[in-house]
Amino acid sequence: MPLIALTGGIASGKSTIAARLAARGAVVVDADAIVRDVQRPGSPVLADIAAEFGPHMINPDGSLDRARLGTRVFGDDDAVKRLNAIVHPAVRLESARRFAAALAADPHAVVVYDVPLLVEARVDDPWQLIVVAHAPADVREERLIGVRGMDETDAAARIASQVSDEARLAVADVVIDTSGSLDETLRQTDDLWERLPEHLAARAAR
């Protein structure tokens, strides 16, 4: 079972690539969805977040106030580390469970882990291939402003808070340039899928 990591900065088009790979037959495991799942109401992770950052991080219905927590930790490296120490181990366990379930269902499945924080948290895991969705920071900033409605300051801050493009590109086996049209991104993704055995063999040979 090939286990492929797909990463990229905010507004890099990573989700578009993941959706295309899923349409071609890959089993996509979404790290962001796992984060939401392990932080569900009543979960140990949510209890630990409340203990660390205060009960006001929990909404009246028992769910996590993501906006409040995001505001609390954004720009505070120590707070981010404390939050990651709570969340990352649970995400790692749940992702491993989902990888195993995919393998059990189909030993030949191609599993793609859609993971924004690969470089920060999971780069040393035993991936068979690392794929990076890449667009220059100025292009991604334009998308955050034009598509997601952020102002220029917020968009720049979100990009600056993430690991550098250079750090992501340094770990890439395959780079998909998403700075062009949607069709160009999909064409590169289809090419990745068609040439997957070649890419896997090249990585294994290193």
From TrEMBL:
Pfam family, one: CoaE
EC number(s) stated in the UniProt entry for this protein: 2.7.1.24
Stretch forming the signal peptide: none
Residues engaged in binding ATP: 11-16
InterPro entries hit by this protein: Depp_CoAkinase, P-loop_NTPase
CDD domains according to UniProt: DPCK (cd02022)
This protein's record includes keyword Magnesium: no
Alphabetically ordered keywords of this record: ATP-binding, Coenzyme A biosynthesis, Cytoplasm, Kinase, Nucleotide-binding, Transferase
Pathway assigned to this chain's UniProt record: Cofactor biosynthesis; coenzyme A biosynthesis; CoA from (R)-pantothenate: step 5/5
Main location: cytoplasm
Molecular function in Gene Ontology: dephospho-CoA kinase activity
Catalysed transformations (reactions): 3'-dephospho-CoA + ATP = ADP + CoA + H(+)
Places the protein is found: Cytoplasm
Database matches in HAMAP family: Dephospho_CoA_kinase
UniProt function note: Catalyzes the phosphorylation of the 3'-hydroxyl group of dephosphocoenzyme A to form coenzyme A.
PANTHER family: BIFUNCTIONAL COENZYME A SYNTHASE-RELATED, DEPHOSPHO-COA KINASE-RELATED
Family: Belongs to the CoaE family.
Name of the molecule in the record: Dephospho-CoA kinase
Organism (species): Microbacterium alkaliflavum
